[in-house]
Amino acid sequence: MDQRGIQYVLRDYGRIPLTLDETIELIGSRKPKDSINVRSPTFRSLKIDLDVLDDATVTELMQENQNIIQRPVLVAGTNRIAGFDCDVYETIGDHRNT
């Protein structure tokens, strides 16, 4: 993003935890389950079956255990991009005003 001149704000939620409202905002219109890194050691240690949890419970789980949130998450207008995807990042400048 630096190379493309795209301004951004970096949020290290390991050092500055997200509030519940910020977690909800980060999820956006996606399903909360789609925002979880099911391969993370923290998630695996919780031994949770996501299929039996409703969205509100998953959101609270994410807020309480922020290491399970898929990273990085880019917020561009109303778009949320979770996980690293170079091809998608190449187009991010096209969505600056969406």
How does the SSE layout of this entry go?
Blueprint: H1 20-27, H2 41-46, H3 55-64, E1 73-76, E2 79-82, H4 86-90
Antiparallel strand pairs: 1-2
Helix pairs in contact: 1-3
Description:
The chain is α+β, with helices and mostly antiparallel strands and 98 residues long. The protein has a single domain, classed as Glutaredoxin, CATH 3.40.30. Helix content is 30%, strand content 8%. It contains 4 helices and 2 strands. The protein has a two-stranded antiparallel sheet. Strand 1 and strand 2 form a beta hairpin. The longest helix has 10 residues.
Sheet with most strands: strand arrangement: 1-2
Structural class comes to: alpha+beta
CATH superfamily: Glutaredoxin
At the first level of CATH, the class is Alpha Beta
CATH topology label: Glutaredoxin
Oligomer: single chain
- Per DSSP, the total helix count is 4
Radius of gyration: 14 Å
Strand count, sense and barrel status of the largest sheet are: 2 strands, antiparallel
End-to-end Cα distance = 17 Å
* Average pLDDT metric: 86
Give the overall shape: elongated
CATH architecture: 3-Layer(aba) Sandwich
Strand content: 5-15%
Low-confidence stretches: none
Overall number of strands: 2
Summarize the structure.
This protein has helices at about 20-25, 40-45, 55-65, 85-90, and strands at about 75, 80. It is of the alpha+beta class and about 100 residues long. It has a single domain, classed as Glutaredoxin (3-Layer(aba) Sandwich), CATH 3.40.30.
